[in-house]
Each structure stands twice: as structure tokens, then as C-alpha cells.
Amino acid sequence: MLDLLPQFAFNGLLIGASYALIAVGLTMIFGIMNIANFAHGEFYMLGGCIAFFLASTLGLNYFVALPLAVIAVAGLGLLLERGIFRRLRNKPPMSSVLATIGLAMMIENGSLALWGPQPQPIPTGLSQMPLEIGPIFTTEPRLFAVVITIAALVTVHLFLNRTVVGTAMRATFQQAEAAKLVGIPIEQVNAITFGLGAGLAALGGALLGAIFFVHPTMGGTATLKAFIVVILGGLGSITGSMVGGLILGIAESLGTLVSSAYKDAIGFVLVILILLYRPDGLFKRS
Fold first, then answer.
1. Which helix (H) or strand (E) is 136 found in, with range?
2. Which residues pair with 136 in a beta bridge?
3. Which contacts qualify for 86-92: CB closer than 8 Å, 24 or more apart?
4. Which of 2, 19, 140, 189 is most buried by its number of CB atoms within 10 A?
5. Would you give per-residue pLDDT tens digits along the chain (286 residues)?
6. Residue 214: what are its φ and ψ, rounded to 5°?
7. CA distance to 28, 160, 258, 265, 268, per residue, from 261 (Å)
8. Residues near 46 by Cβ (< 8 Å), separated by ≥ 6?
9. How far is CA 2 from CA 30, 130, 164, 263, in A?
10. Which residue from 94, 125, 153 is spatially nearest to 210, judged by alpha carbons?
11. 68: number of Cβ within 10 Å
């Protein structure tokens, strides 16, 4: 069984990095706009479904369809921020919860009408033949997804810490009123944050859709996993979302060594155990 650990760890890295992509966007939106977005998983779903439409129906190359899907969902995020989420700021928490749940249902049912309920794989043109890398067996789509996802997480980290816009986002994240007093354009920061968060979720959906399947009902599970990751890492911590996603993905993968039937329950067990000893999560927001 020990011989299988590197393989399961690699599989967990793939899933966990995708969880992290979704959770980072959710954390940024909550931290800056103070809105718990229960429709966030639908951006993940739309990324996969739009990539499928572009690559399968329109016949575009997957490497063209992938960035186009991310840009399309990020653009939709900007429109939704302007039309809906901006109006929910400073509203009672229950208002944003109900509004985002309603939005999630609208997006899901609209996607069902467009693409139907049948799960579909995204054609990539990459080989599905096994690749052997030391003790690990993988395929080109899986290797591509791991590389792109980790590169995206590193890019987000550098963007937030090394750029003027990223500094403005972190300042707004920490104290919005003080950031506004020193001249940071809060409304523009909110819009950029929401668009970036939606685009990251879409990237996860477009990458995993090339490995598994895409369907209009997969957003609900993504939202649930994202909230688990956010709680694991610490509410409001971007670093915690990245680490929490990797922990959850690897834990779920290793858990299949015992029984795949309980894979999804592992996240809830982790949340319970961590909150017992770390009520604020692994990385408490300062």
C-alpha cells in the first residue's frame, strides 16, 4: 500500500489545487465585499461548460478555448458585480445568502436549458496514454492541469504581493474604510476582485472538465467544497485557502485507500477536527 502513496498524493494535488483556485476567489470576494457568494461554484461550472462548447461545438483548439472560457466568465463576473453584488454590499447577511442562492439556481437552470443534463468531456487533443514519472502514472491532460493550476496560484500570489493593484486589493481586504480614505478606488477594486475570483473558478472548471466531465449541476458540489476549504484555511485568509485546498484534495485522495465511498465525508471530518483545536482555521486573518 505504501507504494501507492505517491500516486494518490499526486492525484490529491491535482484535485486540491483546483479546490484552491475556487476557494481563493471565494475568499477574496468575501474578504473585500463581505458577501458569502453561494453562486461561486456556478462560475466553476460555466468555465467547464463554455470550454466544452467552444472546443466541441465550435471546434476551437482546447488551448484557445481554455483562456476564452476564463475571460468570458470573468467578464460575466464583472457584470454581475455591477448589477447585483454591488447592491448587496452592507446589506444584512441573509439578503446576500438568499440572493446568491437564487442566482445559483438561475445560472444552473439556464445552463441546463443550453447544454442539457448529460455529462460531457472537453476534447483537448492531448494523449490519454499513461505517462510514467518515477513512481507516478499520469496522463497529458492531468499533467497539464497540475502545471497550469499551480502556475495560476503562484501568479495570483505574486499579483497580490508585487503589484500596485494587488496592494490596493490587500489594503481593501484588511480595512476598506481606511483604504478609501487614502484614495484607493474601492468600487474598481471590488470589480477587479470579483472578476478575478470568477475567472479563477472558471479556470478550475475548464481544466478538470478536460479530465473528468462537465455538466450544469456540478456547481453545487464545487461551492460546498470551496466553503470547506475556506473554513479549513481560516475565513478571510488567501494563503489559508491555497493550503486548505491542497490539504482537502490530498486527504480525499488518500482516503480512497480506505474506502472511496467516504471520500466526500473526509472534508467534513477535517473541518470538525481542525475547528476543535483551531476555531479560526489554520491561518487566522490578521
1. strand 136-138
2. 133
3. 86/187, 86/190, 88/33, 88/35, 89/33, 89/34, 89/35, 89/190, 90/34
4. 19
5. 566 778 888 888 888 888 888 998 888 888 777 788 899 999 999 999 999 999 998 989 999 999 999 999 999 999 999 888 888 877 777 888 888 999 999 999 999 999 888 888 898 888 888 888 877 888 888 889 989 999 998 999 899 888 998 888 888 887 778 888 888 888 888 899 899 999 999 999 999 888 888 999 998 888 888 888 888 887 777 888 888 888 888 888 877 766 666 777 777 787 788 878 887 777 765 4
6. -115, 145
7. 32, 38, 9, 9, 14
8. 69, 72, 73, 76, 107, 111, 202, 205, 219
9. 40, 21, 47, 19
10. 125
11. 16
Residue 137 phi, psi (nearest 5): -110, 130
Buried b (16+ CB within 10 A) or exposed e, 159-188: ebeeeeebebbbbbbeebeebeeeebebee
The answer to whether 198 and 42 have CB atoms below 8 angstroms apart is no
AA letter at 180: K
Strand partners, 214: 120
> Which residues pair with residue 120 across a beta bridge?
214
Q: Is 139 helix (H, G, I), strand (E, B) or coil?
A: coil
Q: What's the maximum distance between 2 C-alpha atoms anywhere in the chain? A: 58
Cell numbers 453545487 correspond to what residue?
A: 220
